[in-house]
Design brief:
Blueprint: H1 11-23, E1 47-52, H2 67-76, E2 81-83, E3 90-92, E4 95-100, E5 106-111, H3 125-137, H4 145-148, E6 152-159, E7 162-167, H5 174-177, H6 195-199, E8 210-216, E9 220-225, E10 246-251, H7 255-263, E11 269-270, E12 290-292, E13 295-302, H8 312-320, H9 324-330, H10 361-370, E14 374-375, E15 381-383, E16 386-387, E17 389-394, H11 401-413, E18 418-423, H12 426-435, E19 440-446, H13 452-457, H14 472-481, H15 486-502, E20 506-510, E21 513-515, E22 517-518, E23 522-523, E24 526-527, E25 533-534, E26 539-540
Parallel strand pairs: 1-10, 1-11, 17-18, 17-19
Antiparallel strand pairs: 2-3, 4-5, 5-7, 6-7, 8-9, 9-10, 11-22, 12-21, 13-19, 13-20, 14-15, 15-16, 23-26, 24-25
Helix pairs in contact: 1-7, 8-10, 14-15
Length: about 550
Amino acid sequence: MFGNPVRLLSATGLVLVLGLAAACGTTNAAGGGGGGGDAGPPKPGGTLRLGISSNPDCLDPQQVGTNAALNVGRQLVDSLTDQDPTNGKITPWLAEKWEVNADSTSFTFTLRKGATFSDGTPVDAAAVKGSFDGIKAIGPKAQLGNGYLAAYKGATVVDPSTVRLDFSAPSAQFLQASSTMSLGVLAPSAYRKSPEQRCQGDGLLGSGPFVFESFKSNQQIVITKRKGYAWGSPLWKHTGEAYLDRVEFRVVPEPGVRTGSLASGQLDAITDVQPVDEPQFAGNGFTEPVRANPGIVFNLHANTTRGVLTDVKVRQAVLKGVNRREVTDTVLTKNYKPASSILGSATPLHLDLSKELAYDPDGAKELLDEQGWAPGPDGIRVKDGTRLSARIVFSLVFNQNQSVLELVQQQLRKIGFDLRIEQRTTAETQQLTLAGDYDYIWYNTTRADADILRQLYSTKAGNRSKLAAGNPLDAALDKQAATVDEATRKPAVEEAQRVIIEQAYAVPVFELTQVWGLGPKTHDVAFEASSRMRLFDAWLAG
């Protein structure tokens, strides 16, 4: 329990500890899954003390959208399928096989035998139906699942081991969605509790390799090993039960305290290592697992019905005026990639459009000259008494957001464009996004499936660019949504990416990257396909 926690290092104590670590000389081991040295074969047992950067307001993976919460929830629930992080392929998990009809409106899953929830009840077709019906019933409270199940009509129990899920519109994306923790299967008894109770862990019963023990808000979440677990994903490194006996997710918002506590051995691992702290854990027994997030990269997403952004040539000039490499080299680190498309490079069906996103300030100025925008006395261009200016709304969901935008602002001033930066809370930013009250909106969205483009750009869904119905982008997005056949889907997804960049509906800047720090005794803390945490194979040496 966290009632008498080990005191974490203060920011002052951090300086000394990290200074010593740097003085020892480190080598970069980024991307690995465990501590340094040859620790021999994995050993069962022990408690992993894991520092996380924010408090999960809710633990139910069916309701949450933040990494802090999903990293906990992934350990508690299994999913119908799994997704290979190396190639994006969907593989069996609770379902040993499945069939999809021709227009991707019906998915039939055959469940593996022997899996049970932590209360002993079987993971059967009735339980799967109840779980998906339960997600649909809570509507927007299911922050991610509500979108995945937007067209969900219902489920049919064909027999105890077979369940069919039906949709009112083509939903090829559902196969990947079925691998996420957001659609992880909960026990029937979980739905006898309210969504609010499940958020606090009350009734949060899954079939996963760990079970919920306790939640003390703003302090700690504890999960423990599920005894007898034997139905893990074939993608995992071993079979049977998890190695760790216990995991303590300790909430440590201050980055300096978090990194100092890892350096001193008070924590075994941490999430969200900040760019300035990355060198401290690139050797000397420490490792830094690193993986770029799939999905939508951090970008300036244009409302094409607002002000100067109604002009495609202006939007294209802004796209050419951003130096992505300077952003990653100056504000971030080598662990962060400049955007090469609106989709991150870890996303299945990503198309490399680096040439189209090349820094070209002269080309940007030519476009603006053509449109009659002339430099004003302060360098910002003017046309018919109107300044070439747009507002971008952002929140600090990522620590470096303000620094990145300030650099982009400087870059755009060089072509005569005034980017006005406006920081809001996350809640305020979400409200402005829903209301369409923005010129540019700054955000990223994690998902290991290209259908995230449809969710945000289609006029039938999010339509963040405020496009008119029947546009060419809609056609491509509809086509990719209608089939799970990659040979048909791939050209449609690639076309959608091209249109977004050609029309400069968004200005991609950089790929968000997950950077963790692992202590010398910590091994095999792994990324799943959405760059979230998987602890089944994790173990502690010594």
